[in-house]
Design goal:
With about 425 residues, the protein is α+β, with helices and mostly antiparallel strands. Helix content is about 60%, strand content about 10%. The protein has 13 helices and 8 strands.
Length: about 425
């Protein structure tokens, strides 16, 4: 299909779109030319030449087309009035119906710029009035070619205007839908970026809070006993080195998620899960936190109960990767809070309950350590302005589960963290 640019009409087309009154004035001049040519050069022009009144009425009717865009209905009524005036009052025999071309253009404009029901009602009235008047007072017989031609032209004008209006509405709907799709894509991209940043922030918090807490305790122990018990100090420093190495490895793996395409390949160590729960418990045992673990399962196959980290992993069984990582991080953060806030000598109890469609985690501490004069045992889960509890709740909520933290029930000393994680096809997404 030849475009306007290839034909050299692009610049005039843009100018006419920018100056609609100039375009309509040119259209009015063209219609007036056609009307006068039809009256003076037609097959009956020699025998029935129109008088000066016809020229004047044609000039007025075509001049009204300059305002066809801002006032389409008024212009239609104006042009129809001059057509009826020429047909009924002037007394030309036969009347020169070429003036109806101005009404045809006005009818097209109304149909193109009005809703469909209104446009068709106006078109029906216009066609009936113009053709009925011409058939009654125009060329004899009523079914003469000129009369039927006027009927056809007015009907085609209404149909063409409706088609143009429908096409404009269709194009506008497509453009609006494309813009909405573009906005939706941008919003979805921003949402995914925000979610990814939040997930990475949770990972960094969990890694740093856990390992740095262990390093801090072991470094304090080594500093305290360096002179009196150097062997135990060396052991504590070895634990510091091991904890820092583990922290660096997990940080490297997490930061690797931020690498761009073409950067060096990030480490591919698997994400931690309940399968390495024994290593997590051993790390806390080295800093003096006793952790008792019990697990139960309602699955039809496999062991029903077990104690200890290794046995608990067997009872819980395989989990979706996202659920496995979330369970490990919740336990890691809860035990880190126990170690930080419950004080020396505290003991933690971890209970795992595996159901066919969920995993229930409960972490309790006895609050045997640090106390305050006003409240007694300090809540082990208190973050003191940190983001640990928020991170646990966000992890559970991201999987469709829940996480609660607060003092133990019935006035018992200590703190309780309870998380429920769904285990299903959606949880591993």
């Amino acid at each position: 299909m030849t475009s306007l640019a290839t034909t050299g009409l692009a610049r005039p087309h843009r100018w006419l779109r920018a100056h609609p009154y100039a375009a309509d004035a040119a259209l009015a001049a063209a219609v007036l030319t056609v009307v006068l040519l039809g009256a003076y050069v037609g097959p009956h022009a020699a025998a029935h030449r129109p008088g000066p009144y016809y020229v004047l009425m044609s000039l007025f009717a075509c001049t009204g087309l300059v305002l066809r865009r801002p006032m389409p209905r008024a212009v239609l009524a104006f042009t129809c009035a001059f057509t009826l005036l020429e047909t009924v009052i002037t007394g030309d025999d036969p009347p020169h119906t070429q003036i109806a071309l101005a009404a045809v253009v006005a009818l097209y404009t109304v149909a193109a710029r009005t809703d469909r029901p209104t446009a068709w009602r106006i078109a029906a009235v216009t066609v009936a009035v113009l053709t009925g008047t011409v058939m009654l007072f125009g060329v004899r017989p009523w079914y003469a070619q000129e009369n039927l031609g006027l009927f056809a032209w007015t009907g085609m004008a209404a149909a063409a205007g409706d088609a143009v209006r429908s096409r404009r509405a269709f194009i506008a709907a497509i453009e609006e839908r494309a813009e909405r799709a573009e906005r939706t894509r941008e919003e979805e991209a921003r949402r995914r970026v925000a979610e990814e940043r939040l997930r990475i922030a949770r990972e960094l918090h969990d890694v740093v809070a856990h390992h740095i807490a262990l390093v801090n305790v072991q470094a304090g122990v080594a500093s305290h006993i360096m002179d009196s018990r150097p062997d135990q100090a060396k052991e504590a420093l070895a634990h510091v080195r091991e904890a820092s190495r583990s922290a660096l490895g997990e940080l490297r793996a997490t930061v690797g998620l931020l690498r761009q395409h073409g950067d060096p390949e990030a480490p591919t160590e698997p994400a931690p899960g309940l399968g390495v729960l024994d290593q997590l418990v051993d790390g806390f045992a080295r800093v003096g936190l006793r952790v008792d673990i019990a697990a139960a399962s309602t699955l039809p196959d496999g062991p029903a109960t077990a104690t200890g980290a290794a046995g608990a992993a067997d009872v819980v069984g395989p989990l979706p990767a996202a659920v496995d990582l979330a369970a490990y991080r919740v336990l890691q953060e809860a035990l880190t809070n126990v170690h930080k806030h419950a004080g020396p000598g505290a003991r933690a109890e971890v209970a795992l309950l595996r159901a066919p469609d969920s995993l229930l985690l409960t972490v309790l501490d006895d609050g045997a350590g640090r106390t305050t004069p006003a409240t007694g045992a300090a809540p082990a889960g208190a973050d003191h302005g940190g983001h640990g509890l928020i991170g646990m709740r966000e992890r559970a909520a991201a999987l469709g589960g829940s996480c609660e933290a607060g003092p133990r029930e019935r006035g018992a000393p200590g703190f309780r963290v309870r998380a429920s994680l769904p285990v299903g096809s959606a949880a591993g997404t």
